[in-house]
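Structure in, sequence out. Go:
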């Protein structure tokens, strides 16, 4: 089968289209014929090996030869202990534990995928898993956003931000989106009430206070995050720089508690129920999974380049030609 492979960390040029053996499903895995796979910041980071946390399991060389986690496709074969799926079923999910989605076929654990709602295309389904579940847990489960609250989404013009802005608006919040100036119209089109250009304005120094800050691009110190929270405010770090991550992990809970605020990491736990919740909202038209561009398998490097340069507004999806 065809797959986009790499053997060393680096820029998109380290990727190449190659012929590789089709994977065989383990006992608890399904083999999926990939119809669509979306590109995530986690693919960009794991390709480059930066930040350092992207090298977990592969400090010197990539742990996975094939990237791509958000897949949608049709089950081709199942392992002997799989009970929920059979060949022919349409499924989608975040295959972060095994990756391998930038290929014609991929193996995923049974519990990593869910049945694709019939009303969603493979492309729409592939746009949902990682970004949608980050947003759902960040805004609803862990952020506990309520009507009338002031919510700031840092990195609101990317994949997870696109869902987070919409979910926060659905909850009845006033939403501020922070991203580069090229994404301001996009954030407003998602429903953001205010937008901030991170290149010109440090959102922690405007004097505004927020009840919830969902940080998809955390680069500041924990004291900044404490300052920008309103009383009882919740800050959730999802991604960004390692120094910022360490500060939030080590000092956030204590500094926050002393000020009557919550400052914590959000470690996203993938589960089929959250996946289906977001998918059903998309199927109903309540959430829109915005697809910025479509690519073919041999164009994965270009898709990653666009994401890495910060030009993607919403999701980039690789589609199969069949
Ligand atoms: N915690 C977890 O369990 C978990 C799980 C999976 C993924 N993640 C992380 O989640 C994060 C978000 O993923 P995603 O798929 O939404 O990424 P994405 O599509 O690349 O979106 C990130 C957005 O943040 C913007 N940005 C970059 N630097 C910024 C800054 N200093 N201030 C404000 N915005 C900035 C980017 O724009 P530019 O073009 O300007 O760069 C981009 O629009 C990633 O860091 C990923 O590693 C976390």
């Amino acid at each position: 089968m065809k797959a986009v492979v790499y053997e060393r960390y680096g820029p998109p040029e380290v990727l190449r289209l190659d012929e590789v053996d089709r994977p065989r499903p383990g006992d608890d895995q399904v083999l999926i014929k990939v119809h669509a796979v979306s590109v995530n910041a986690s693919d960009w980071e794991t390709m480059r090996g930066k930040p350092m946390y992207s090298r977990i399991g592969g400090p010197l060389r990539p742990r996975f030869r094939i990237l791509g986690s958000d897949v949608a496709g049709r089950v081709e074969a199942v392992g002997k202990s799989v009970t929920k799926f059979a060949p022919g079923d349409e499924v989608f999910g975040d295959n972060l534990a095994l990756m391998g989605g930038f290929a014609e076929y991929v193996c995923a654990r049974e519990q990593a995928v869910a049945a694709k709602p019939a009303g969603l295309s493979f492309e729409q389904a592939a746009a949902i898993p990682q970004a949608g579940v980050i947003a759902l847990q960040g805004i609803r489960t862990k952020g506990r956003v309520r009507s009338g609250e002031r919510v700031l989404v840092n990195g609101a013009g990317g994949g997870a931000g696109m869902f987070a802005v919409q979910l926060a608006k659905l909850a009845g919040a006033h939403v501020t989106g922070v991203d580069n100036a090229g994404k301001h119209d996009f954030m407003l089109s998602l429903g953001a009430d205010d937008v901030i250009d991170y290149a010109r304005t440090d959102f922690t120094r405007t004097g505004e206070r927020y009840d919830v800050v969902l940080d998809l691009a955390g680069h500041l110190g924990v004291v900044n995050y404490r300052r920008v929270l309103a009383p009882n405010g919740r800050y959730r770090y999802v991604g960004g720089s390692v120094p910022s991550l360490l500060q939030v992990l080590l000092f956030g809970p204590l500094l926050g508690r002393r000020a009557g605020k919550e400052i914590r990491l959000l470690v996203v736990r993938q589960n089929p129920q959250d996946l289906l919740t977001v998918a059903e909202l998309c199927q109903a038209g309540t959430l829109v999974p915005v697809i910025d561009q479509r690519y073919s398998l041999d164009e994965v490097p270009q898709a990653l380049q666009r994401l890495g340069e910060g030009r993607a507004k919403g999701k980039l999806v690789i589609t199969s030609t069949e």
